[in-house]
């Protein structure tokens, strides 16, 4: 909530909003009228929604802060607005990024015109030739006085993080005639300064912590603002964007453009690459500067990978930068429709912490997919090898069809429900971002997949070929075709499911973390899925009977199955202890498509299209040439009979050579003289199809 906290009025610098009695009445009236009239009438301060709450600011926040100053001075701006409605405004120079000021002109009968102006203090003061003194009388305002005010008033305010606004006016006497309102430079000069106010735009208490989290997450936060550089620097320091002891660059828009543009005024990527890595604050910037910075960072080749840029904005001028960025965040409350349309995400609460939540959820979704892949690939590898190898050796698959369907249900539906519902945690912000082409299956995941697959295969094959001796039961191998389910194969199936169940807990961590139970109780869906799967497995084994090819197991056998399943957790700790960097043979999988590959693919597609189009063209040309050859031959024969003379020797021999050389442009030219067939439309279609210039010229020549 922006608020006026300091003011320079009548040669006095007030460190807090003064009482109305402390200001000369004429100066006070001029200040109140200027603020009330020279602001959008849509800007308004309304009563709080609930008792004891803060008043609601509607419209432009800076103007609301100035209107709040009017109320603190015990005046009412509504009465002035009712007395002078918007229809009576003779001329309005609206605020824009290049002008950085707003002016409203009133026509006063028999007196002339009065113009009220407000805007960035250093810009308005440069256009002031007078200033109101303590008695409300205008006195000459020299450049020396301006420099003194900048040093003693504006810079101290800016260093405290205050946004400084200058309020001024100018009278145009009637006897001087109506000025040329289109000559803006002339109109906005010779102003008389009324006051300079310092507006506090307080940093929300949660913002510094949110920016710190972004920095820990490998995200560099930069401030691009239209404020004074001192104001921007102070706010950036409060937020934590500028940190002591770290090399940081703070620039104004003019200096930024001077550093990145060449003598012709063109932006050079090499120059920009020297500036943006250390740039943290860009003050007094234009929308073009913001777009240039975003585009420059995206196009930069300084790092190993392309930078991913997110931009926040609320104004219409932020549209190009929001559109250019990889991710555009628009403000839902203060944002304009243009900004919202150009953005990808709308922050409904206008809070920077929502960006941190977006980062957490984005990383969480990526990790959830990776967790599910790690679990499913492990199950797939083991199930396929066991089913195939077992069937080849024992002539019967250890895992029956219905059992495989149940395993598929575990590893598809239930596992995805359990692993994809993990809530995001703060730990996601303690690592650097993934690259744009980062593979879904990392080397650590590949290590986990192969490591657990080896453990499960060893256990399953041990039980398959020696299980009857270990548990002192009848062997299930080589059993007759329609024999009842055996304890042996039921134990194999049960152990397999138990290992998957406990490996599902291992799959919760994909970055080599040891504590796989961390935060498990915060995900009730995961706990419900694991417990529900365990209960269903008991029901299937004990009461599934022949449909599930299961024989009821004793309590001892169940305990052994669960014990072997728990071994998955212990084995997971052993696999985690193996350094991934030593396993050079492991490969990553699921790489994204690089820009070079995309470019190559596009070129290949284009080449195919050109080839197909050219082939169609050549087929058409062959038909045309054959037809033309036949006509020319017939004309030669007719001409021979008409004249009674032999045709020119070789004439009939020369024409077939055209057919055999239809690809040669020079051969096509021999057809131009004896024919008059129009092919102009064919020529234009050929060019649009992308045929080589020689082919297009050939068709055109033949047509003529």
TrEMBL record:
Where would you say this protein principally sits, based on its record? membrane
Q: Which GO terms describe its cellular component?
A: plasma membrane
Q: What is this protein called?
A: ATPase, Ca++ transporting, plasma membrane 4
Q: What ranges does the record give for the region Disordered, renumbered to this chain? A: 672-704
Write down the InterPro entries for this protein, in alphabetical order.
ATP_Ca_trans_C, ATPase_P-typ_cation-transptr_C, ATPase_P-typ_cyto_dom_N, ATPase_P-typ_TM_dom_sf, HAD-like_sf, P-type_ATPase_IIB, P_typ_ATPase
Give the source's domain of life in one word: Eukaryota
Record the organism. Nothobranchius furzeri (Turquoise killifish)
Q: Does the keyword Transmembrane helix apply?
A: yes
How the protein sits in the membrane?
Multi-pass membrane protein
Task: Answer yes or no on keyword Transport.
Answer: yes
Give the transmembrane ranges.
373-394, 449-467, 487-505, 525-545, 557-578
Chain ranges of the Plasma membrane calcium transporting P-type ATPase C-terminal domain? 620-645
Segments forming a coiled coil? none
GO BP, one annotated term:
regulation of cytosolic calcium ion concentration
A Pfam family assignment: Cation_ATPase_C
Molecular function terms, GO-annotated:
ATP binding; ATP hydrolysis activity; metal ion binding; P-type calcium transporter activity; PDZ domain binding
Domain Cation-transporting P-type ATPase C-terminal stretches: 397-576
Location within or outside the cell = Cell membrane
For this UniProt record, give its keywords in alphabetical order, as a comma-separated list. ATP-binding, Cell membrane, Ion transport, Magnesium, Membrane, Metal-binding, Nucleotide-binding, Phosphoprotein, Translocase, Transmembrane, Transmembrane helix, Transport
């Amino acid at each position: 909530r922006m608020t006026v906290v300091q003011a320079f009025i009548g040669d006095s610098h007030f460190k807090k909003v003064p009482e109305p009695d402390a200001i000369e009445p004429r100066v006070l009236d001029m200040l109140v009228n200027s603020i009330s009239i020279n602001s959008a009438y849509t800007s308004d301060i309304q009563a709080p929604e609930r008792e004891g709450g803060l008043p609601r600011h509607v419209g432009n926040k800076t103007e609301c802060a100035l209107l709040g100053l009017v109320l603190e001075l015990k005046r009412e701006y509504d009465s002035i607005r009712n007395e002078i409605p918007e229809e009576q405004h003779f001329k309005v120079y609206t605020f824009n990024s290049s002008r950085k000021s707003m002016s409203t002109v009133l026509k006063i009968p028999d007196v002339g015109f009065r113009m009220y102006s407000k805007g960035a203090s250093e810009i308005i003061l440069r256009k002031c030739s007078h200033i109101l003194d303590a008695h409300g009388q205008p006195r000459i305002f020299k450049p020396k006085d301006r420099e003194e005010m900048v040093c003693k008033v504006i810079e101290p305010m800016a260093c405290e993080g205050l946004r400084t606004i200058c309020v001024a006016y100018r009278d145009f006497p009637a006897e001087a005639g109506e000025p040329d309102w289109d000559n803006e430079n002339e109109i906005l000069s010779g102003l008389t300064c009324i006051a300079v106010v310092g507006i506090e735009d307080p940093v929300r208490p949660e913002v510094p912590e949110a920016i710190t989290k972004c920095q820990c997450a490998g995200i560099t936060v930069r401030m691009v603002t239209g404020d004074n550089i001192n104001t921007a620097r102070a706010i950036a320091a409060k937020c934590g964007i500028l940190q002591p002891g770290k090399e940081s660059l703070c620039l104004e828009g003019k200096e930024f453009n001077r550093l990145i543009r060449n003598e012709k005024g063109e932006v050079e990527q090499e120059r920009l690459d020297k500036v943006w890595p250390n740039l943290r604050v860009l003050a007094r910037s234009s929308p073009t500067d913001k777009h240039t910075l975003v585009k420059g960072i995206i196009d930069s080749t300084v790092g190993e990978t392309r930078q991913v840029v997110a931009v926040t904005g609320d104004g219409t001028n932020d549209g190009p930068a929001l559109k250019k960025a990889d991710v555009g965040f628009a403000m839902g409350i203060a944002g304009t429709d243009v900004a919202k349309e150009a953005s990808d995400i709308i922050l409904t609460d206008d809070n920077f912490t929502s960006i941190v939540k977006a980062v957490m959820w984005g990383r969480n979704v990526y990790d959830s997919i990776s967790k599910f892949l790690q679990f499913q690939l492990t199950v797939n590898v083991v199930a396929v090898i066991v089913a195939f190898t077992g069937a080849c050796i024992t002539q019967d698959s250890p895992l029956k069809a219905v059992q495989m369907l149940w395993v598929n249900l575990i590893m598809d539906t239930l596992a995805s429900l359990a692993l994809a519902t993990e809530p995001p945690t703060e730990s996601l912000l303690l690592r650097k971002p993934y690259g744009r082409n980062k593979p879904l299956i990392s080397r650590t995941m590949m290590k986990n997949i192969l490591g657990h697959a080896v453990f499960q295969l060893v256990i399953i094959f041990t039980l398959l070929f020696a299980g009857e001796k270990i548990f002192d039961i009848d062997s299930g191998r080589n059993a007759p075709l329609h024999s009842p389910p055996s304890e042996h194969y039921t134990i194999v199936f049960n152990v397999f499911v138990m290992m998957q169940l406990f490996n599902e807990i291992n799959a919760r961590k994909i970055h080599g973390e040891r504590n796989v139970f961390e935060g498990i109780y915060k995900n009730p869906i995961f706990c419900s899925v694991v417990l529900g799967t365990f209960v269903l497995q008991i029901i299937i084994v004990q009461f599934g009977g022949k449909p599930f090819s299961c024989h009821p197991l004793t309590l001892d056998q169940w305990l052994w199955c669960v014990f072997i399943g728990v071994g998955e957790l212990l084995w997971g700790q052993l696999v985690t202890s193996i350094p991934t960097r030593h396993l050079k043979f492991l490969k990553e999988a699921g790489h994204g498509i690089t820009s070079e590959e995309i470019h190559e693919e596009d070129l290949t597609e284009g080449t195919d299209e050109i080839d197909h189009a050219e082939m169609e063209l050549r087929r058409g040309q062959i038909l045309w040439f054959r037809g033309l050859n036949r006509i020319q031959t017939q004309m030669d024969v007719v001409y021979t009979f008409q004249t009674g003379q032999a045709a020119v020797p070789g004439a009939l021999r020369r024409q077939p050579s055209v057919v055999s050389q239809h690809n040669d442009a020079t051969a096509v030219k021999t057809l131009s003289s004896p024919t008059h067939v129009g092919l102009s439309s064919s020529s234009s279609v050929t060019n649009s199809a992308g045929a080589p210039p020689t082919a297009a010229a050939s068709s055109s020549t033949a047509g003529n």
